[in-house]
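INFO batch 0412 | record 1 of 1 | parsing
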Amino acid sequence: MLVLPIDKEAPRGRLILPQVQALRDLMDADAMAMVVKERELKEALGRLKEPPKLVVTDSQAFLKVAADTPPDVPMTSFSILFARFKGDLTTQVAGTMAVENLKSGDRVLVGEACSHHPIGEDIGRVKIPRWLTQYVGGKLNFDTVQGHDYPDDLTPYKLVIHCGACSINRREMLSRIVRCRANRACRSPTTDW
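INFO prediction complete | emitting tokens
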């Protein structure tokens, strides 16, 4: 079951790249998929004779989807799928622990691989910074790079967040992870894509 919230970043009539790639992967594996919006999930699950083997959703709808998904049905996000597919999931999960060490005033790099024009509630420029600032309880200093721009020196950053790995290949994503590991101040990245 794929839960696809309508993303404001995608032009009308289009899905975002991770959703398209996941659908294609399911088709290549001869798997059946049901696609719903987050507000349709509960009704769709009620109509099935058997529960789905997996529910996949966008990170932004995770709490709503988790509330509507039965506890015995495994659930994940497109972000986790792409972390595993394009990156090094173990390193990236370990990197999320750096959030616990953030303090007010720390610098955070948001690396967006995609080159879309950000709008209102952009995940990398608005939502993630807001969530982290609330979690830390103080002001953080965010720098954002886009596309193939990526700083040579990552030492000023306490945390590197990566968004948009659907837009780059695995080799480039792994290269960015290696560069983070090479910096003492940035031992491993956390990722949301």
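INFO post-check: Residues 185-193 have pLDDT under 50 and may be disordered.
INFO record closed
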